[in-house]
Structure prediction request, 405 residues.
Amino acid sequence: MSRPESLLARADRSGWPLLLARLALGVMFVWMGVAKILDPVEFLKLIRQYHALPESPAYYMNTVAVVLPWIETICGATLLLGVAVRGAGIVSAVMLVFFTPMIFMRGLELYDGGGGEFATFCAVNFDCGCGAGAVFVCNKTAENCGLLLAALVATASRSRRFCLSRLFVRRPAPARPRISVS
Amino acid sequence: MKRTALTLLEVIALLATAATLALASNALRRDGLKLSKSYFEKPVPHTRATTQEGPPSTQQSPPTTQGSPTATRESTPTTQESPTTTQASQPATNTRQPDVEEHPFQVVTFEEAFGIINDELYELDVCIFVDARNDKQYEQGHIPRAWRLDPYHSDLYIDDLEQLARDAERIIIYCEGGDCEDAIFAGRELLEWGIELEKISLYEGGIEDWEAKGGPIEKGALE
Prediction:
């Protein structure tokens, strides 16, 4: 006797949660990735403010400034199209897991325990290098948590409804009825 | 197992595609980054005024107090009508943020910069202004007759600017102002070209200060 299907599994099978996750993540990643591609110098300067990469040798920071926006854009585009969804979901999740704490820490640094120019932590407003200009740190952290959830949905979902990749997947042919000759 | 392998393959394919496209487009575009170039490294100046080689503690003191970099520069032996004379009688207009890099350059105030563009010698490029911002910002408005030197794409400007900078007696560099460091990087670029440190000054207030104090603005690209 088969077990009854859970609510989550049924929702996933409908394909709608994945579609929503793909659209949210895809639009954000393409938008922000393209903004960075258009101005690599500005993105390089913003990466530098995090002090997460060594300035010498210059290869590290410059390569990240050049390649990272393209990773975002390609991930976003594949998610929108519905191709390599699980791979794009994993890459997106990894990026968000790295960047969200970095943005939060930078916010804390600017807040400086209340001794900085911002009255509260949530009033901290800076260009995080995310591609959308200056943002409020609390809003950005919440937004990234939402995107991380969407990335996890894209990674874990078994549905491929509304995905372009569905066209390429060869479905198993229906079993032919056996004709027995007696 | 098959699913995991397929996912791994997707990840590798995504990263490889992105890296290939990124490096190819960067190589092809005019404003691409040079991967090996250290845009933020400090080169050693070719010449340096003796009083500017003081202990770092002098350079790190707050800009508005006595004994600040401005005060140190007052005794700089220069042949020019020193900008520091002006600074001595006026309150410092240093608008830099505390986390902005220290630099070895002299600093000019709005009043001094304004005096220079109104000098008849300004037309002869004896003293030049250099705008260290990008094309878009420059075209939106710049100090009249300012030349361009975007430190991130300095190769594009070396032909026009190098000889002019060598012939000029004084070069004043500016960028946005506030915590903008591009003027410092442009100054370092000039040092790399072999321009003497004593000739280079920084207008730290930048275009923000210039506009706020009513300095004339010229719009459009450099002709």
Q: What stands out?
A: The longest helix of chain A spans residues 85-111. Chain A has one domain: 13-164. The radius of gyration of chain A is 22 Å.
